[in-house]
From TrEMBL, chain A:
Signal peptide: none annotated. This is Amino acid/amide ABC transporter ATP-binding protein 1 (HAAT family). InterPro entries: AAA+_ATPase, ABC_AA/LPS_Transport, ABC_transporter-like_ATP-bd, BCA_ABC_TP_C, P-loop_NTPase. Keywords: ATP-binding, Nucleotide-binding, Transport. Residues 338-352 have a biased composition (Low complexity).
Automatic annotation (TrEMBL), chain B:
This is Amino acid/amide ABC transporter membrane protein 2 (HAAT family). Residues 1-30 have a biased composition (Low complexity). It is a multi-pass membrane protein. It comes from Sediminihabitans luteus. The chain crosses the membrane at residues 63-81, 93-114, 119-136, 156-175, 187-203, 249-268, 299-316, 322-342, 349-366, 386-407. It is found in: Cell membrane.
Length: 352, 454
């Protein structure tokens, strides 16, 4: 059933090897250039510039400054209460109710067109539900400006990467801290003490976040020039920079090879352990099962399952709706269902 | 070279050992891909400009001032020295430089709007006109709102009106921006184009206030340095002859204002404001979702840009002492935009060079009959300046679409140490021939161990 897995791994490592070979080959062809372009700079040794960031606990402390999330762990952070979304005659969400609890990783899955994105937009205030309410942190999410929603504590990444390409990685992350700045144009013009302190903190936090997601060495490179995997990580760092209570990841593993997915799972768990609540929208069943604490399954705008990964993957309704009915109806074999997933979710790995 | 090589290599090894051990002890994902370097062909051309920039960035702040101030003084002295090849023949070099100073200010202001925030403003001349007319309306005897008769002394009327002009243009920027900045791209361009024309047509048709097509004359100017020679002071249009004529004095005033504007804009650029502007330019929706109040910062860009345009307008009114609507044609908007695009959108020093090119080149040819011994009809060439600017822009878009001096904004005030470290790392890599001290070795080791673990 896992017949295609070794192939993937082999392909992945071969790709890495090629990458490695290319890496060792390029320096020889580079001419000596004493004043080389800074923009194309190679890895910065973070430990040299910011010695304190060599210690992972310090990084964690900077990344999650307020750990109040740990206080009410398990309490609902965001509640969808009987939410219905209708667009003309189309019912995109049909009386959907579920909670995202503090300190958990919730997976939101469903086949294409199941209403995942609509649910996502309803949660982030882009749409106002036709009926029902969305409660975030005890307050109803109305149709506030999108930057206001971010300030209230919901951050997101994009399915198709949307970084600020001309800015460096560090600058991208520091833009994320904008939501927490208090001074504005007058403070910047006169460089007031408060403004300077804010700027300094933002850069420290930005550096720590880059180190946290594992791309600290690329801080001064332009986002456009980063490898694909690093761009995805940079998006996560930028979202975390807004100091969210809830981090929504929209297919963060799209286009990743199995090894990269593995390390992404580690990162997502680490984010949760640091006190953030994570909502994960993902097609890749293996990733969702491996990392989430709870899974909500949507189909045709209705919630069809809600529970731990084990419960959900053994739920016959989910199996039938999302994973597809196995040809041989081999129900005892269900824990191994990761294999066919790639077939059932055609966008896995292909979406960029 | 050999002395510096050894410590470099050892320190790199030490750090590589340190970071690998640090990575090994954490549960953090260690899938940092090998530091894939951009192939030489894909790198931006590392030419003289880049080297100059690198050298400049590496200098300490006091050193930068120590070099910058004499450089500015040298530029200020240009119209006094009048270098033989640089000076103009058809028009006075001093007044050409004064004009350059005004257009440079405009380019700095327009650069905030177009270059930084990416808002295409085709009616920028409107703010220039509002700045000029504010000063003219308050100080010209032709105007119904003339204050110089009553309590405002003619000696300092211009200076008193400068902050008023700044405030009025900033407010007009706010009024124009609040409804229109919800538009994007082409729509915004069209609306601003309309604004520029509205201002000009108002000035042309409000006969009772602006004097219509006759314009407003005898606008106030600073009366400084009154002497036998200059009965009206050195800033008067009457001071037209000699080396230290009114143009040179106005050029010096504009240099002071340019330096102040550059400091303000520079402070903004390296703060959350500048970052927000660039983020809006790059991807407005993403910026908004990352918590940047995009509308507010777009409005700020408009207001700041307008205010700087207003300063330039006030300078113009004072220098020419005569304001007519025809000076604020839409073609001027295009010329200002041309200066910004030519110099390099987003590069506040580049656009000053762009302004110089736009103002200086036509004047260079004006009245010139030969260049390097080749007989030319300079006046004819100057007449076709728009044709040549058009051609220059087309060529620029083909060969150097980012302008003569592409922007490399630094958007962080305190990130300097990082960038210096990056430069050091880059140098280390390209300097070490054998590759033993390469910083690349660190990620490469990581990948190897990760591969084994898998």
């Amino acid at each position: 059933m896992r017949a295609n897995d070794p192939e993937d791994v082999v392909a992945g490592s071969a790709h890495e090897d090629a990458h490695l070979a290319a890496d060792t080959a390029t320096p020889e062809t580079l001419p000596y250039d004493p004043g080389g372009d800074v923009e194309e700079a190679v890895a910065v040794d973070v430990a040299e510039v910011r010695p304190e960031l060599a210690d992972p606990t310090t990084v964690d402390a900077i990344v999650a400054p307020s750990r109040d999330v740990h206080v009410a762990e398990g309490e609902p952070l965001l509640s969808m209460r009987d939410v219905t979304m209708q667009f003309g005659g189309l019912t995109a969400l049909d009386h959907v109710t579920f909670d995202i609890r503090r300190g958990e990783i919730l997976g939101l899955i469903g086949p294409n067109g199941a209403g995942k994105t609509t649910a996502f937009n309803a949660m982030t205030g882009v749409y106002r539900p036709t009926s029902g309410t969305v409660l975030f942190d005890g307050e109803v999410i109305g149709k506030a400006a999108r930057n206001e929603i971010t300030r209230r504590g919901i951050a997101r990444t994009f399915q198709n990467i949307r970084l600020f390409g001309e800015m460096t990685a560090l600058e991208n992350v520091v833009v994320g801290t904008d939501a927490r700045h208090r001074t504005s144009v007058p403070g910047a013009v006169f460089r007031t003490r408060r403004h300077r302190a804010e700027e300094r903190d933002a850069i420290d936090r930005g550096m720590a976040l880059l180190e946290f997601v594992g791309i600290g060495a690329r801080a001064t490179e332009r986002a456009r020039n980063l490898p694909y995997g690093d761009q995805r990580r940079l998006e996560i760092a930028r979202a975390l920079a807004t100091e969210p209570k809830l981090l929504c990841l929209d297919e963060p593993a799209a286009g990743f090879n199995p090894a990269e997915k593995e390390s992404l799972m580690g990162l997502i768990r680490h984010i949760r352990d640091d006190g953030y609540t994570v909502l994960l929208i993902e097609h890749d069943m293996r990733l969702v099962r491996g990392v989430t604490d709870r899974i909500v399954v949507l189909e045709f705008g209705r919630k069809i399952a809600d529970g731990t990964p084990e419960e959900v993957t053994s739920d016959p309704a989910v199996v039938a709706a999302y994973l597809g009915v196995p040809d041989d109806a081999a129900v005892p074999d269900l824990p191994e269902i990761g294999g066919p997933t790639t077939g059932a979710a055609p966008t896995t790995g292909g979406t960029r | 070279m050999s002395t510096s090589d050894t410590p470099d290599a050892t320190s790199a090894k030490a750090t590589s050992a340190k970071s690998t051990s640090a990575k090994a002890t954490t549960s953090r994902p260690t899938s940092l891909p090998p530091a894939g370097r951009t192939p030489v062909a894909q790198r931006p051309h590392a030419g003289l400009g880049d080297r100059l920039r690198l050298w400049w960035d590496a200098l300490a702040r006091p050193t930068q001032w120590a070099i910058g101030v004499p450089f500015i003084l040298l530029i200020a002295a240009l119209p006094v020295i009048r270098p033989p090849l640089l000076t103009t023949v058809g028009t006075d070099f001093g007044s050409v430089m004064a004009q350059f100073g005004m257009v440079a200010l405009i380019a700095i202001g327009l650069n905030v709007v177009v270059g930084q925030a990416g808002l295409l403003d085709l009616g920028y001349v409107g703010f220039y006109a509002i700045g000029a007319y504010t000063v003219a309306l308050l100080t010209s005897p032709d105007s119904p709102w003339n204050l110089t008769d009553d309590w405002l002394s003619n000696d300092w009327a211009w200076l008193a009106c400068l902050p008023v002009a700044i405030a009025v243009t900033a407010i007009s920027g706010l009024i124009l921006g609040s409804p229109t900045l919800r538009l994007r791209g082409d729509y915004l361009a069209i609306v601003t184009l309309g604004f520029g024309e509205i201002v000009r047509l108002l000035a042309d048709n409000l006969d009772s206030v602006t004097g219509g097509g006759r314009g407003l004359s005898q606008v106030a100017y600073p009366r400084v340095g009154v002497s036998e020679e200059h009965p009206n002071g050195v800033f008067s249009a009457g001071n037209a002859s000699g080396t230290l004529n009114a143009g040179v004095w106005w050029f010096w005033v504009s240099i002071v204002l340019i330096v102040i504007a550059l400091l303000v804009v520079g402070n903004l650029e390296r703060s959350r404001v500048g970052r927000a502007w660039v983020a809006i330019r790059e991807d407005e929706d993403a910026a908004e979702i990352m918590g940047v109040p995009t509308f507010r910062f777009k409005l700020w860009a408009f207001v700041i840009g307008a205010a700087i345009g207003g300063i330039s307008g006030a300078l113009y009114a004072g220098q020419v002492q005569f304001v007519v609507p025809t000076n604020f044609n839409v073609i001027n908007s295009m010329l200002f935009l041309c200066a910004v695009v030519l110099g390099g959108q987003g590069n506040k020093l580049g656009v000053i060079v762009g302004a110089f090119v736009v103002v200086y080149l036509p004047n260079f040819f004006l009245g010139r009959t030969e260049i390097f011994g080749i007989p030319i009809d300079g006046n004819e060439i100057a007449n076709y300046k728009y044709l040549f600017f058009g051609l220059a822009l087309v060529l620029l878009m083909i060969f150097r679409p980012q302008g003569l001096f592409p922007a490399r904004q630094k958007l962080l005030t305190y990130g300097r140490e990082l960038y210096v470290a990056a430069r050091a790392a880059a140098r280390k890599v390209s300097g070490a021939g054998d590759g033993s001290g390469r910083a690349d070795a660190v990620p490469a080791v990581d990948v190897a161990t990760e591969g084994d673990a898998r």
